[in-house]
């Protein structure tokens, strides 16, 4: 099992939570980005720097992640590729993308994109806050407990 991170837009607090979880549970953690990442050197942690371009990091994750892995992304189209393949997928605010919600999330995302392209100002997500951090940490712990064999 590996944890895959769409790292280009991953909030710093989420990165820290993931690094701690990887070390505590001895789970490989892979950050994928189209720029160099400044991460502490740690066992179980690696980075993949992909070429520049739209969705290059997403494509790397989509082709590398396997059933039973966990991915962290706020990219709904990437989540829509991963979920049907059995990759547990969380957004940085702790929401689990699932078979039950991914079609609706993708539809809403596409609708909002169409509005923006037609000139409607839709605003963006609120800033990442302490509540988001707590929600992500709780969701990550819950999903890792479910995915990892009992240890001890």
Automatic annotation (TrEMBL):
It comes from the Bacteria. It holds the Pfam family DUF188. InterPro entries: UPF0178 (IPR003791). Belongs to the UPF0178 family. This is UPF0178 protein FJV41_18390.
């Amino acid at each position: 099992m590996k944890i895959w991170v769409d790292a280009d837009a991953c909030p710093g607090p989420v990165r820290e939570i993931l690094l701690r979880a990887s070390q505590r549970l001895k789970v490989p953690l892979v950050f994928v980005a189209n720029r160099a990442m400044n991460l502490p050197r740690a066992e179980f942690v690696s980075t993949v720097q992909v070429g520049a371009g739209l969705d290059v990091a997403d494509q790397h994750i989509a082709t590398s992640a396997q059933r039973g892995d966990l991915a962290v992304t706020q990219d709904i189209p990437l989540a829509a590729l991963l979920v049907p393949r059995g990759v547990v997928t969380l957004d940085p605010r702790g929401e689990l993308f699932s078979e039950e919600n991914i079609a609706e999330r993708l539809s809403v995302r596409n609708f909002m994109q169409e509005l923006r392209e037609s000139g409607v100002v839709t605003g963006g997500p609120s800033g990442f806050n302490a509540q988001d951090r707590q929600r992500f940490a709780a969701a990550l712990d819950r999903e890792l407990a479910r995915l990892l064999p009992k240890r001890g």
